[in-house]
Amino acid sequence: MVVVLKPDVPVEKRNELIKEIESLGVKVQVTEGVEVSILGLVGDTSNINKYRIASNDIVANILRVQEPFKKANKMFKPDYTIIEVCGRKIGEGYFTVITGPCSVESEEQIEGIAKAVKESKAAFLRGGAYKPRTSPYAFQGLGLEGLEYLKHAKKHTGLPIVSEIMSVDMLERFVDDVDIIQVGARNMQNFVLLKELGKTKKPILLKRGLAATIEEWLMSAEYIMSEGNDRVILCERGIRTFETYTRNTLDLSAVQAVKRLSHLPVIVDPSHATGKAWMVESMSKAAVVAGADGLIIEVHNNPSLALCDGQQSITPEEYSLLMEKIEKLVEFEGKKLVF
Amino acid sequence: MVVVLKPDVPVEKRNELIKEIESLGVKVQVTEGVEVSILGLVGDTSNINKYRIASNDIVANILRVQEPFKKANKMFKPDYTIIEVCGRKIGEGYFTVITGPCSVESEEQIEGIAKAVKESKAAFLRGGAYKPRTSPYAFQGLGLEGLEYLKHAKKHTGLPIVSEIMSVDMLERFVDDVDIIQVGARNMQNFVLLKELGKTKKPILLKRGLAATIEEWLMSAEYIMSEGNDRVILCERGIRTFETYTRNTLDLSAVQAVKRLSHLPVIVDPSHATGKAWMVESMSKAAVVAGADGLIIEVHNNPSLALCDGQQSITPEEYSLLMEKIEKLVEFEGKKLVF
Amino acid sequence: MVVVLKPDVPVEKRNELIKEIESLGVKVQVTEGVEVSILGLVGDTSNINKYRIASNDIVANILRVQEPFKKANKMFKPDYTIIEVCGRKIGEGYFTVITGPCSVESEEQIEGIAKAVKESKAAFLRGGAYKPRTSPYAFQGLGLEGLEYLKHAKKHTGLPIVSEIMSVDMLERFVDDVDIIQVGARNMQNFVLLKELGKTKKPILLKRGLAATIEEWLMSAEYIMSEGNDRVILCERGIRTFETYTRNTLDLSAVQAVKRLSHLPVIVDPSHATGKAWMVESMSKAAVVAGADGLIIEVHNNPSLALCDGQQSITPEEYSLLMEKIEKLVEFEGKKLVF
Amino acid sequence: MVVVLKPDVPVEKRNELIKEIESLGVKVQVTEGVEVSILGLVGDTSNINKYRIASNDIVANILRVQEPFKKANKMFKPDYTIIEVCGRKIGEGYFTVITGPCSVESEEQIEGIAKAVKESKAAFLRGGAYKPRTSPYAFQGLGLEGLEYLKHAKKHTGLPIVSEIMSVDMLERFVDDVDIIQVGARNMQNFVLLKELGKTKKPILLKRGLAATIEEWLMSAEYIMSEGNDRVILCERGIRTFETYTRNTLDLSAVQAVKRLSHLPVIVDPSHATGKAWMVESMSKAAVVAGADGLIIEVHNNPSLALCDGQQSITPEEYSLLMEKIEKLVEFEGKKLVF
Q1: Which of D270, D265, C211, D261 is nearest to A252 (CA)?
Q2: Domain of B285: which CATH number?
Q3: Which end of chain A, N or C, is less surrounded by CB atoms within 10 Å?
């Protein structure tokens, strides 16, 4: 941590501040500049309250020297984390595709889609049983019934299940029924939920919040990891910007940013990012060569009748054609397609 | 709802679409333009899936004619809602200030602040018992102990309490102990929590999410109201933009927007919006004349030692001086200061 | 400037970097931390290329210690600048309102408006002769004819003129005809234009760009000032955010930010910021108590027939009523209304 | 254009409005809804002032049915435009890479880079002679001397030249010396410049503004085209968002959006978008498979000594390795690499 002082600070005031800071357990080293001087704090600054120092009236600014995330930080664990779920790997060197409808609508629907996408090399089946919807009047998901249908589909196809949890009270059930627990963008900073997920051993698919910086996203991963669960998969799904042509703005450069800052796997959701079925192919391909470890793609047997997000869902046939291209690009990247 | 068709659509295809839409229970009226034609949907369109129609390949665009919120909508309830809590009113014509520290840190701290701000005409005492923090390593609040201290402070000063709830499992306790339950910006779309709050009779202070549009914010109010609880107070607390000089960007025009779209009270949080104690005065004053129904202001006895958000907290003395100005401006606006 | 090194950098590499940096004319002071070390650069760093140092592979980050603007910086000129134009003052302690239509449409129109707003204590008459429009098919202004009409209106009312310049080739004419030259938001970083304006002695009204940070805005003022023209008036006119209910998001906290960082006057444009005539009153009032030095307000004799921005223009009658309130608030702030 | 009326509007008022609208030369067709009625305007609405109608107090909202750009619109010219410059094609089916340093620094520098990138299959040489810099104290380019060096480099390598114009007074010189004239992000809405460029026959590389929507970007292309110059190449270079890890946020989905809305070529600038040399490879590859028609990449012989944007420049060696991958992906996409 570096403390920038205002110009022309009296020496006594500066010494007082140094004394105060050193009482917090760190050493202070002064660099006297021509116009302003700075204090370098040496030692463990993780518990030092930045605001406390900033509120001192001789302080102009506080500069942070290190990232605030530890367990998620690549600097402290240089090897990329590979997460294995039901024999399928997710992480650097592999490419893993999670596919399925936005919401489970019926047993036939989810089984039909599951069979189709399995044939087209999906590694996991996704399906929403509980749906976070902007409107209270919109379809909210089938709930427990939806979870049951997902389990049946898993039984029949062998595809492990990914589904979104919306509250802590469903945790036990999700731990029992689901293979990867998804945390949605709107819950990325639901810290109570994150902590409870950190106490399980389940892999967690953590979507980036609509307005979350990459650092905040990694700090939410840190919440889960700080409780003991290291199996976090990050998912870029578009951020909110001024542009309204797409549902969100897919931030593909976040993939490389995460790969540099963290050892955790990162996948991309082109369906929510764009909100347009006809953009899914191009953004899926882009995600592969941008270095993502996988994709999560919405597929629906009949998008025009979907109860949720039909506009951004592709059909099983379109998915099959897409996967042919994906497979070639994964090979081009020297990675292994997991299925 | 208006459906815009692509140019040169064959009549049969158009008729098929009209038939499909009318099977959903609405009437369709065609306006033939020079280049494009449009379909006007007449009837109750609230259950019509916009995406379903949009995925038809002769459709160019769907335009919405009405706001999606009903119970929060001023069009259907033109009189402003006044919410009374422990004899104190919140809503049009009144000005109500909620004051206190970001987090409850000790019994002495909260009692000291409570007494001071009561003398300076605060109407409610705020204090965090559970704190949503970006970092899992930061102070997370005193929890139940904090709630107890708040209750003591209420007993000694008579100030009703406002505190933030972070999860459904604390609901019973909050209903018992707290006079207004606050929902933080990060939980604005925690729909499970919103629905449960909707089943209580407690007033809810609903903060705007970091990246929430005004419409999404009102839809979150609608979640609470659709379950039967009409006592929602909206709180503008700054939105996330590209500007980093302030913690967030205070969107003061949202106050008038809410006043036009909804009958619900709307207050302003200048402390979180700016993240800078020295900006609280100017933004508080601006909020009064911009038409807000109140303020929520962070006050700490010793900001430089605060365990949370010290940089944006003002002292009880600064608060006292601020309230003298606020009181005059409230009078200027022809409103009644509640305390 | 502070250079943060990566962990475990070999001493020789560090010494090489120090040598390289010192060859640029500054001294380097090392602070060795537990995990990372930092280099403090002492001396004139204004010509040091940050990117040059950052591209060295032992460097983790570069932190800037000082603001990059000098002449606009309050640190180096603590007294607020008061700009006097035709006997009217703009700056701290005064409140100055610039009023008129978005575009000059005819001689009668501008004269009529000028007389009306003069009676309601406008200090300056604004009117666009050249209009930057998003569409090439929209009304582009009357050009020179518009400037002539403005001059007539000035002659008849005594109100000095504010008008927007769009390119360098019009500079001579604007210097002759106009009292304050406005630079629009879209030209805030038209550096060629800024430099030429810096060579004149005319006061410049510099609008903030749609996506300009406060620092970039001050750097654009610095462009003008670095050429010798210190008479820059800043104008906050709303920034672009994800919210679409208002045309832009008025960033009122920018007023206080500018007042702290710079000595230059800062005024507010509530008309463009909100894009809604019915919001102009509340945001104008808010600007006064937020500490602005003035306003620029769009007034049109017949908004529904305006060739440009009618939706955000108020009538002379509405303006008159607004100014009564403004005058009281200016008095409340202990400032002097200029007219 | 669709006009949405407020609920319960008296028939006479509605008829008055219809009469007023029809006097503007269009026909009005009424659709009566259950709660609100709408007016569909039939005919040429391009000259109808939306704000004029919106300011009528019985109007709730105005919805636009068509895009405001005409000449750039794919709906009216379905075939993609291919622009040929010095025998090199830019547009659908081709992939064209423009390469060179941010700024021309010396004759040796630009010649050395030109030779190197030519060998690695660059199609055009870029180099800034005039540089738009945020700070007036930063290197502003070599000016005319820079243009001369570019011409020499063209003579020696045969690579046509791309360079940025900053003001109208340089137009003649740029038309003579440069093969593609670049308009920078900060000048995307410098309408005076756009119009003058529209009167030339030179190809224009139009960068997207920092906060420009896709529609505004296409409207700026329309400015050029409406004056008679159809040879516009669009360039996505990142937009400004809340994320600060990257210099801007590359909006790759804009490529497909442009391809659907317009027939104009669109290329991608990964260097400015990310601001990080180590991200250029991944984002370049992503741009190819996302459907872009080309790239503009910053290459510098010695990035750590670059006078401008060194942090985002790659070396000729890195460029050479990158182009091997690009070439394979271009082939994968079934396109032809132009060089």
Answers
A1: D270
A2: 3.20.20.70
A3: C
